[in-house]
Structure formats: structure tokens, C-alpha cells
Amino acid sequence: MTVTIKDIAKKVGVSPSTVSRVANGSTAISEETRQKILEAMEEMKYHPNSLARNFANGSTNTIGLVIDAEEENTFSNAFFNRSVFAIEAVVQANGYNLLITNNRENKNRTAVKSLVLENKVDGIILPSSSVTSKLINLLIEEDFPFLVLGEPEIEKDRISWVDINNTAGSELAVKHLADMGFEKIAFLYENPDTVFSKNRLTGFLEGLRKESLPCREEFIRTCNESTGNLDAQMDELISGEIKPDAFICSNNMIAFQVLKFLKSRKIRVPEEVGVVTFDNYPFAEYMDPPLSAVDVDTYTLGEQAAANLLNKIKRTDSGNRQTVISTRLILRQSSKRR
To answer: d(Cα 162, Cα 301) in Å, to the nearest integer?
Structure first.
């Protein structure tokens, strides 16, 4: 037989409305009474009807996390997993559930529109790749709480977003290499069209300027993670009249291929060439030699995104807030000259 609020009220000797307030987390009840009600709930195995409660107060107690996944490998991405874990931890601690959906279009309606227009969630976290002026206008017109994970290409001043300080990360890497005596630094990155890649390149160029180091256009290379493509780029670089004496890599996989290539050519790291990678997690410290890394704190990124969105849902923060997470440089053997 299902236990009701009236059953709990009768056992404790209070009104059903008092039990209801405790079940809904109200603090306007004496601690003694609250404890008696909670003990009675546990003893009688009472479970609140969250569906009915949410219907009554117009809340779903659910946060939507929208992803832009074109392939199944998205879910094996360490950056994605650490951020999602942090988001889930924060929303659960605040009494919310996390719903993850891919932003596919179905019958002229995207997942985002369905979540918003059908009131399936109380707020959403969007990837920067899903940001369009049309979508932002819809969310603003609906007065719907949302936050963007990653600095968007457009509308960045009209909305709240959270991202890593990629520009400063590249500057840190350049300064460290310069301090170690490296003067001819190359920059290898994968996708020049993403905002974070553009910011990392901007930081690289600014770092060179601050250290009074030359900027050689041929030292900036776009490469993918396939061995063939990267090996060809590296062959051109070390065959040139002026050869790089250090590499900054935009991720672990590129750095791994760079180390493998240098070893195959019997080029010593760090005695002859220094290497620094972005992303400490998960492989940098296990490579040979262990890689110096710009640590991109994706866990804090997720935590901050969830916290900022909850503030919007609770209406404690109605403005637009752009939050940038600091990076740090972890020094290891790959760039430390004796």
C-alpha cells in the first residue's frame, strides 16, 4: 500500500501541509519537527511523487546537456567525459537530474527546440558549435535559462559562456620554451576553424612577440592525427633551411606522433628539440619522455558551467557572464634542458 503525506502527518501529529513543505525542502520548519518528519518518511518508506510535485510548481528538476556528436567516438573523448562528469556531480548535488541529448534535427525541429518549447528541462547547456543567431533569439524570447560550453564564434557578447583560457595557455608554453633556450618554435594544431584553436594560435603569436622571437609562417602547421599527414609535415619542417628547435602541439595525439617521428630520426628530446603539448590528461605523463603540458582543467570547466546555469535557473544571476578558466603549465622532461 502506497504511503501518502497524510499518513506521515498522522504519525508525527502535524498537518499534511507541514509534511509537504519538508518534502519540498522548505526551511520554514523547526529543526525538531523536520527531523521527526524525515524519520517517519524513512520508517514508513515514503517516496515523494516528484512528477506530481514538479507539475504543481512548474519545474522538471532536470538540466539538459546538448551535445553535437556526429560519431560514436565523441563519447570516448576525455575532454567530453571529464566535463560531463563534473556537470552531473554539480546538478545532482543541487537536486537536479541530467538529461543528455544529441542536437540532431528531426522533422524540422532540433533537440534544443524540443527541450525548450515542450518544457522538458529547466535549463540547458549548449556546445558552442550549436550556437546560431536564430537559436539564441529563440532562447532569449522564451526567457529560457541557458549557458554555452566553450567560447562561441558568434553572439558571444549577448550570452553567458564558459571556456578555457587557451590564449594564455599558449603564451605560457612559449615563455617556458624561451626560458629553456629554445628560439625556433613551431606550432602544430588540428582544426584552424574552431575558436579554441584560433585562440591558441593567437596566444602562440603573442608569446613569440613578448619573448622577441621570430614568427615564421612555415612553422605554423595544420595537421591531423593520422601518421601520414603529420609525418609529411614534420619531414618538411626538419628538411627546411631553418629547422624548429621546439614544438607546441595542440593535443596529446599530435604530440605522440611528433615524439615518435623525432625518435625515428634519432633527434633527441629535449637536448636537441623541446616538445610541449596541450592537455595533460590522460597521456602526457606516460609518454617517452614524459611531456610538459598546458593543463586544460575540463573538470572545473564543467563545474563552473553547471553552477552558472543553476544561478540563472534560480534567478540569482540574470546578466550575461563570460567565464574563462585559467590554465597552468606542468613541466616534465620533454622541454627541460639541463
So the answer is: 7
Distance CA 262, CA 231 (A): 10
Q: Is the pLDDT of residue 255 over 80?
A: yes
DSSP state for residue 129 in the 8-state scheme: G
Contact 291, 173 (CB under 8 A): no
Q: What is the Cα 191 distance to its own chain's centre?
A: 18
Neighbours of 121 (CB within 10 A): 27
Closest Cα partner for 179 from 21, 5, 329, 6? Answer: 329
Per the CB < 8 A criterion, the answer to whether 160 and 312 are in contact is yes
Amino acid letter for position 1: M
Percent helix, percent strand, percent coil in the chain, to nearest 5: 45, 15, 35
Helix (H, G, I), strand (E, B) or coil at 162: strand
Domain architecture of the chain: domains with CATH: 5-48 (1.10.260.40), 62-164+300-326 (3.40.50.2300), 166-296+329-335 (3.40.50.2300)
- Asked if 334 and 268 touch (Cβ cutoff 8 Å), the reply is no
pLDDT tens sequence across 133-142: 999 999 999 9
Q: For position 17, what pLDDT does the model report?
A: 85
Burial 198-215 (b: 16+ CB within 10 A, else e): bbbbebbbebbeebebee
For 102, the grid coordinates are 544529441
Q: How many CB atoms lie within 10 A of CB 268?
A: 10
Note the pLDDT of residue 67.
85
The single-letter DSSP state of residue 178 is H
Rounded to 5 degrees, φ, ψ at 55 are: -60, -40
4-29 residue pLDDT tens: 888 888 889 998 888 878 876 666 78
On whether the pTM is more than 0.85, the answer is no
